[in-house]
């Protein structure tokens, strides 16, 4: 029987939820507000009312072309996500439906690679990229982003696949479905919410990745993270311009997140309630 | 006729292919400073003169740029053909063989015209390894109206005692006026740039001739105690978080009586578009204490060619264009003399048009008052006025800067900060093999 929720409890829950949401969203909101200030207003102190000038946006566009790094970000985020799914779906399928004694260890090992600070492997990766001609190429960076996000993608898909009853796949096999057909026609359609949310999360992670995208690019493959980094100045006020560049950089992913929030929440809570 | 036309077409295509094959692309790494951004906007002049050279710009935050460029140069990556570096890196990288000597800058370049103090900081074993794009020292910027109100007259070459006295008299907490604004934010290029330069005036030094740290000597105690006391009495609140940009904003908003910082700041504080006190700013040399050295630094953002480049000749052609006399005239013709990159060429300061810029003479005098090869009162084994040109200084300078910033914030005493600085510096210098 469902527990009765009083109006007072509802009000408290709503207030807490809104407060939390505002706290989480506030840095982004303040970035947008700062982008609409003059440089002297931006550094003057905390103030939520900007003068609503767009001079920083004009300065940002005059100084750097937004379109090229934007296109690079799109290609890198989408490309690395597709590549990661191609590798991760069979891997997660194998671990979810044909587990061995070492499956858990393999999963833990994959996750442990995320615990290492990226800078620890900077020099070897840098040298590999140099020697193989991958430096400052979209292909090289797409592979790199795919590799660094692969453990999370496999983990997420593994969790979703575990929720799918193995008997359904067995029934398909009984009906003569091949392995390929089993994955493509039975498993994948059933796991669409999970795959979609994994895809969205991976796009966000790849879009925001700033260490490798700055270290392994110069001009050709530099995405929006490098675009933002170019607006910090050691001598001269830059906060408003930096905020304008950041707003332009996060706007596409923010809009995408807004429109796909139902899918994201559905996927992220998939299997949470039984 | 048809055959002739085909032959002509083939020849044209081959010629186009040849031009494309001959075109070189230079990748230039730089910081986001006003003068650098202006240079990017003026590169049409360069490409018109050198249509066979294309330019790609990589603009990054100073620390990211340093990290990227260091990784690339240490691995001989060849990602950059021209890089913007400072006077700290040049002698260290030249010694490592990471930079090409600039010996092909052209007949009309006039190397002898580069201000000697700047050229000295960019040379190693007598060879120039970077060409200065703009040079700077530090000096006192002060509010003429507040100085007058305090009943004082700023001399061209003030003492530290005068500065301290004036700061206390100019302070007006009720009206939000701080007598003096100085750097407090921790970092080898932030508070330690100011404090190391100031310590030279107090007779202090980082190391003696045996590389033994000197923070346990009275001269450092005098430096740090005077600075902390003055900032507590006449400085802004939260000064331990203030760097160049924070103090610039305070001064522009009329909240500082004096500000001792980079000479390049003069063009910002005197610009009426951004500064509320643009017409009330005076300039003076950084203070001394009568020991023969002033508390001003020397720095030059410079263009260098890494040894790993595949386009060395084209890179030197670009460096020559960007640091030439003709470039200064180009900027003057487009944006006025006040916006010309300062502090690089003697001839600029002999130009009667540039002499009209109010801070021009004081900038040159400040640059000339700094000697990176003899920065301190007592002899030292290193070069560098506000830094020590050894690879270990970035890390060590920042650690000591954190201790001094903590002393300013009141989180530890001056004595404790100096004792810890002495201990850390001794450990690091021993570990690095300087102390036997």
Provide the CATH topology of the largest domain in chain B.
D-Maltodextrin-Binding Protein, domain 2
Number of helices of chain A: 14
What's the end-to-end separation of chain A, in Å? 15 Å
Number of strands of chain A: 0
Low-confidence stretches of chain B: 12-21
Tell me, what is the CATH class of the largest domain in chain B? Alpha Beta
Tell me the β content of chain B: 5-15%
Q: Which overall shape of chain A is indicated by the principal axes computed on the Cα atoms?
A: globular
Strand content of the residues of chain A, in percent? Answer: under 5%
What about the largest sheet of chain B?
Answer: 8 strands, mixed
CATH topology-level fold name of the domain at 66-230 in chain A: MetI-like fold
Structure commentary:
The complex is a heterodimer of chains A (about 270) and B (about 425). With about 270 residues, chain A is mainly α. Chain A has helices spanning about 5-35, 40-45, 55-65, 65-95, 105-110, 120-130, 140-160, 165-175, 180-190, 190-210, 210-215, 225-230, 240-260, 260-270. Chain A has a domain at about 65-230: MetI-like (MetI-like fold), CATH 1.10.3720. The radius of gyration of chain A is 23 Å and the shape is globular. Chain A starts with 6 loop residues before the first helix and ends in a 6-residue tail after the last helix. The model of chain A has no long low-confidence stretch (mean pLDDT about 90). Chain B has about 425 residues and is an alpha/beta fold. Chain B has 2 domains: about 1-135 and about 300-355, Periplasmic binding protein-like II (D-Maltodextrin-Binding Protein, domain 2), CATH 3.40.190; about 135-295 and about 385-430, D-Maltodextrin-Binding Protein, domain 2 (3-Layer(aba) Sandwich). In chain B, about 45% of the residues lie in helices and about 15% in strands. Chain B has 19 helices and 10 strands. Chain B has helices at about 1-20, 35-40, 45-50, 60-75, 90-95, 115-120, 145-150, 160-170, 190-200, 220-235, 245-250, 265-270, 310-320, 325-335, 345-350, 350-355, 360-370, 395-410, 415-430, and strands spanning about 25-30, 55-60, 80-85, 125, 125-130, 130-145, 180, 255-260, 280-285, 300-305.
């Amino acid at each position: 029987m469902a527990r009765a929720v009083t109006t007072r409890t509802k009000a408290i829950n709503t207030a807490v939820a809104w407060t939390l949401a505002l706290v989480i969203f506030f840095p982004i909101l303040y970035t947008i507000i700062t982008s609409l200030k003059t440089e002297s207003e931006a550094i003057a102190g905390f103030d939520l009312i900007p003068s609503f000038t767009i001079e920083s946006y004009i300065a940002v566009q005059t100084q750097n072309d937004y379109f090229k790094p934007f296109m690079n970000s799109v290609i890198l985020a989408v490309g690395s996500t597709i590549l990661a799914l191609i590798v991760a779906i069979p891997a997660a399928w194998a671990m979810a439906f044909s587990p061995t004694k070492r499956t858990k260890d393999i999963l833990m090992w994959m996750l442990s690679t995320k615990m290492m600070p990226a800078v620890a492997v900077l020099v070897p990766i840098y040298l590999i990229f140099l020697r193989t001609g991958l430096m400052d190429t979209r292909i090289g960076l797409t592979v790199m982003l795919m590799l660094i996000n692969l453990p999370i993608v496999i983990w997420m898909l593994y969790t979703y696949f575990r929720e799918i009853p193995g008997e359904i796949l067995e029934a398909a096999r009984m009906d003569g479905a091949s392995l390929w057909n089993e994955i493509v026609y039975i498993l994948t359609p059933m796991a669409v919410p999970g795959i979609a949310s994994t895809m969205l999360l991976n796009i966000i992670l790849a879009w925001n990745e700033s260490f490798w995208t700055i270290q392994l690019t110069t001009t050709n493959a530099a995405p929006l993270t490098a675009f933002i980094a170019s607006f910090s100045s050691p001598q001269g006020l830059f906060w408003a311009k930096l905020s304008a560049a950041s707003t332009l950089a996060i706007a596409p992913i923010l809009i995408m997140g807004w429109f796909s929030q139902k899918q994201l929440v559905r996927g992220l809570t998939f299997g949470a309630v039984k | 006729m048809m055959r002739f036309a085909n032959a002509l077409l083939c020849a044209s295509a081959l010629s186009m292919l040849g031009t494309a094959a001959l075109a070189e692309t230079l990748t230039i790494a730089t910081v986001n400073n006003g003068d650098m951004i202006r240079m990017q906007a003026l590169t049409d002049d360069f490409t018109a003169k050198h249509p066979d050279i294309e330019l790609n710009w990589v603009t990054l935050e100073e620390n990211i740029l340093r990290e990227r460029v260091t990784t690339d140069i240490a691995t001989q990556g060849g990602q950059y053909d021209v890089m913007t570096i400072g006077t700290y890196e040049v002698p260290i990288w030249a010694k490592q063989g990471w930079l090409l000597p600039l010996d092909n800058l052209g007949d009309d370049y006039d190397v002898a015209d580069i201000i000697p103090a700047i050229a000295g900081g960019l040379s190693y074993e007598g060879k120039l390894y970077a060409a200065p794009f703009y040079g700077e020292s530090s000096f006192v910027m002060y509010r003429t109206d507040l100085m007058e109100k305090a009943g004082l007259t700023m001399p061209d070459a003030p003492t530290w005692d005068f500065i301290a006295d004036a700061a206390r008299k100019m302070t007006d907490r009720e009206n939000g006026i701080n007598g003096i604004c100085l750097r407090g934010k921790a970092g080898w290029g932030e508070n330690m740039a100011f404090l190391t330069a100031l310590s030279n005036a107090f007779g202090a030094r980082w190391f003696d001739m045996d590389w033994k740290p000197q923070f346990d000597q009275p001269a450092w105690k005098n430096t740090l105690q005077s600075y902390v006391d003055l900032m507590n009495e006449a400085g802004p609140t939260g000064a331990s978080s203030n760097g160049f940009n924070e103090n610039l904003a305070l001064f522009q908003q009329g909240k500082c009586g004096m500000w001792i910082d980079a000479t390049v700041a003069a063009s910002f504080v005197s610009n009426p578009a951004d500064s509320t006190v643009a017409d009330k700013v005076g300039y003076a040399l950084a203070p001394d204490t009568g020991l023969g050295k002033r508390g001003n630094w020397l720095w030059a953002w410079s263009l260098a060619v890494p040894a790993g480049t595949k386009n060395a000749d084209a890179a030197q052609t670009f460096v020559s264009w960007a640091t030439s006399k003709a470039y200064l005239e180009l900027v003057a013709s487009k944006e006025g003399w006040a916006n010309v990159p300062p502090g690089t060429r003697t001839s600029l300061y002999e130009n009667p048009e540039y002499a009209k810029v109010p801070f021009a003479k004081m900038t040159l005098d400040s640059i000339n008052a700094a000697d990176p090869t003899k920065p301190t009162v007592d002899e030292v084994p290193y070069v560098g006025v506000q830094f020590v040109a050894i690879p270990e200084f970035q890390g060590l300078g920042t650690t000591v800067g954190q201790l001094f910033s903590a002393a300013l914030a009141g989180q530890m005493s001056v004595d404790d900060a100096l004792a810890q600085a002495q201990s850390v510096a001794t450990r690091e210098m021993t570990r690095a093999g300087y102390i036997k």
